[in-house]
Amino acid sequence: MxxxxxxxxxxxxxxxxxxxxxxxxxxxRGVRLxxxxxxxxxxxxxxxxxxxxxxxxxLIAGLTAIGSLVAVTAGVAPEGPEETPTTPVDLLIAVDVSxxxxxxxxxxxxxxxxxxxxxxxxxxxxxxRVALSVFADWxxxxxxxxxxxxxxxxxxxxxxxxxxxxxxxxxxxxxLIDDAVAEWGERAQSDAISILxxxxxxxxxxxxxxxxxxxxxxxxxxxxVWAGGIGTASGSPLTLTGSTALxxxxxxxxxxxxYDEGMLRQIADVGRGAFHEIDSENGIGSLxxxxxxxxxGTDSAVEPTRDLTVWLILTGLLLLILDAFLxxxxxxxxxx
Length: 336
Known about the structure:
Rossmann fold, 44% helix
């Protein structure tokens, strides 16, 4: 039990001494009255209580009442669960906005789930600072590391392939990871866990060797690489922007957006991170839970704190009532 004004606790011994001294004086006076009344039985009939007995119960009740009320006066701090120290997290969320992210094999679309992921992760508060990047065959730092999550969430609805239509020649994961390393080189926080969260369908034209080499370089720079995969093994035919017409390749065949889960899992494995499928609320929730656990936090429900003030006041008042009841001798008073 802790107190807001612990200095007031020093009043308790003085008040207890005063109460004990008063009861002792009253008892000694009662003993004299017993002799004056002609014995214990006569005193009992006249006073309604045993004057010759030391009021031990009254003393205990009085001292306990004083302790309870002094504790209230000192301000009892509510008891709650012990807080677990957490490690600050710097999180860079990198969202793939290449044309393949318009795929609808994950309803309503891959990019819609990417937007939802950004919003939920920021609102969950799993990181002390958050940054936002978009990438296709190039990488662009949309929001540098900031402790203002509202700034990041402001851009979430704009994470659409239209941002990069004129330059979209596929996806380059290695370029993205290299740029993330440069981001932390400029704005590093020494005591924080640095995490790059790659949100993508995993298709990359720069080859697995280049991607893994960049991931290893990130780990050497002190950055963990996580992956959020969006898509299905069957893939999704793509349509022209703003139209329902299928997007065709040079041979006239429909362009199908694939999903390379193996690449994303390999990135997370080499990057000492974790892989999560982002195709449902459960997938996003699982990723958030893992991020929170990494920092030493918890996503379990916090038990409500217990405020003892009311109980201490009630205890003190009931004990004072008990003292008054014993002092009157009602329980021992006999009917004529």
